[in-house]
Design goal:
Radius of gyration: 18 Å
Strand content: 25-35%
Largest sheet: 8 strands, mixed
Distance between the termini: 42 Å
Strand order of the largest sheet: 8-9-10-12-14-20-16-17
CATH class of one domain: Alpha Beta
Number of helices: 1
Number of strands: 20
Order of helices and strands: EEEEEEEEEEEEEEEEEHEEE
């Protein structure tokens, strides 16, 4: 499925669709519910990006791959994940999307106020909280060992990020978490300012391109 730019209300995706393409529903703010059939196995990057009215989406047992920033800026969204899906799961209230073992927090698009990351989480996924402007604070438990690129990008209301474990964190451009540079995460206020816009700017032909850092601890 390439795109459906006029989508609104409840949308039932046809049961012959196997892939929901990049940005297929980008900016469909009038869409409130997306019903995904069993035939779909892949949801590509930004498929539901900026669907601000979307309140519910189902993840069937057959969905094998969910791309990047698929649900970013969907501030009302809750997930219904089939318990038989071998790759994905959700929080009890449906607001957080995880890997099946709940060790990676993929996204939390409706996050607001004071957010405490569950202590089963080991990895905060890329762009997990992108543009969650209503978040004021985030507490990161000892269990977290890695934070992927752009996790807190655009969280304009964020005042503090508190790490329960402040010992020797590193930043790196390498997604395999090597060759890191030590970063101080002991100050919650400074963390909020630095980590929401933590990029390396690569210059090519006079143009600067932002590349997000990854954070990790050993």
């Amino acid at each position: 499925m390439l795109c459906y730019p006029s989508a609104s209300g409840t949308v039932e995706i046809p049961n012959y669709v196997e892939t929901i393409g990049d940005s297929a529903f980008y900016g469909c703010s009038e869409m409130t519910n997306a019903i995904i059939p069993q035939s779909v196995t892949t949801i590509q990057d930004a498929a539901f990006y900026l669907c601000s009215g979307l309140s519910k989406i189902n993840i069937s047992k057959n969905i094998e791959q969910i791309g990047l920033i698929v649900f970013s800026q969907c501030a009302k969204l809750t997930f219904e994940v089939d318990s038989e899906n071998p790759k994905y799961s959700s929080s009890t209230d449906g607001k957080m999307l995880f890997t099946k073992d709940k060790k990676t927090l993929i996204c939390y698009p409706s996050a607001s106020g004071d957010v405490v990351i569950p202590d089963n989480v080991e990895i905060i996924g890329a762009s997990a909280f992108e543009a969650c402007s209503s978040i004021t604070s985030i507490t990161i438990p000892n269990s977290v060992t890695a934070i992927e690129g752009g996790a807190f990008e655009g969280c304009s209301g964020l005042k503090t990020i508190t790490f329960e474990d402040t010992e020797t964190w590193y930043k790196t451009l390498d997604p395999t978490y090597i060759s890191g540079e030590v970063i101080n995460v002991s100050n919650p206020e400074e963390n909020a300012e630095i980590l929401s816009e933590l990029y390396y700017f690569l210059e090519i032909d006079g143009e600067k391109y932002p590349i997000p850092y990854y954070l990790y601890k050993e």
